[in-house]
């Protein structure tokens, strides 16, 4: 009887040692060895004295039970997080969209073509005044007579003659009805009051005031100041429609 009790104690002690070894294996390797496949993993004395089927309850009792919470997963799609819950959001600076203001300015109502036609009919045909050379600063009498005035679009073509200090020469020029820019050329190879062939009168006030641009740098030019002669208005033709703006 005492011998049998001693054998049982030895067997229980051996099984306990072997279970501790299996626990260490489970902790380091994430699983336990199958005794059916590898019965030699048991101590030889225990494997010979105890059948494998008798050790299975002890092994199951020794393996720690992993507790998994049986909580149903949350329905993420049904309750989405707010945008600031997963990423900080900084709204862009508010900007005011500028509306396209193309064509919102004042409407141009001036009709240069109509004004050119008006100048063709009503521009004075005779002008008188003075021409003052810049080298002598001595004004001399000047007179201009227009013999032909014709409008081409917004340009008025001028033909006539100019007399400066008693010497006359033919002229031809263009007057812009929109900007009042004047370009007047001499049509003779002569010296008229210090004016030479190749130069031109130019101005921005129509026929009233213009300057002489000499063809040579040695000639400083001069100033032509004219005014309409009181009796030089063209004969009144049949009354026509007044010139109006395009809009």
Helix content: 10-25%
Please tally the β strands and state the result. 8
Q: Count of helices?
A: 5
Percent in strands: 25-35%
Mean pLDDT: 73
Order of helices and strands: HHHHHEEEEEEEE
CATH class of the largest domain: Mainly Beta
The structural class is alpha+beta
Low-confidence stretches: 34-40
Counting structural domains, the number is 2
CATH architecture of the largest domain: Beta Barrel
Q: What is the 3D shape? A: rod-shaped
Oligomer: single chain
Radius of gyration: 59 Å
CATH topology of the largest domain: Lipocalin
Distance between the termini: 134 Å
**Biggest sheet: strands side by side, in what order?**
1-2-3-4-5-6-7-8
Summary of the model, kept short:
This protein has helices at 2-29, 44-49, 52-62, 83-86, 112-122; strands at residues 126-133, 140-152, 155-164, 167-176, 182-186, 200-203, 209-213, 222-228.
Spell out the key features of this protein.
alpha+beta, 247 residues, Lipocalin, 2 domains, eight-stranded antiparallel beta barrel
Explain what the structure shows.
The chain is an alpha+beta fold and 247 residues long. It folds into two domains: 2-62; 112-228, Beta Barrel (Lipocalin). 24% of the residues lie in helices and 25% in strands. The chain contains five helices and eight strands, in the order αααααββββββββ. Strands 1-2-3-4-5-6-7-8 form an eight-stranded antiparallel barrel. Strand 6 and strand 7 form a beta hairpin. The protein is rod-shaped. The termini are far apart. Mean pLDDT is 73; it is low at 34-40.
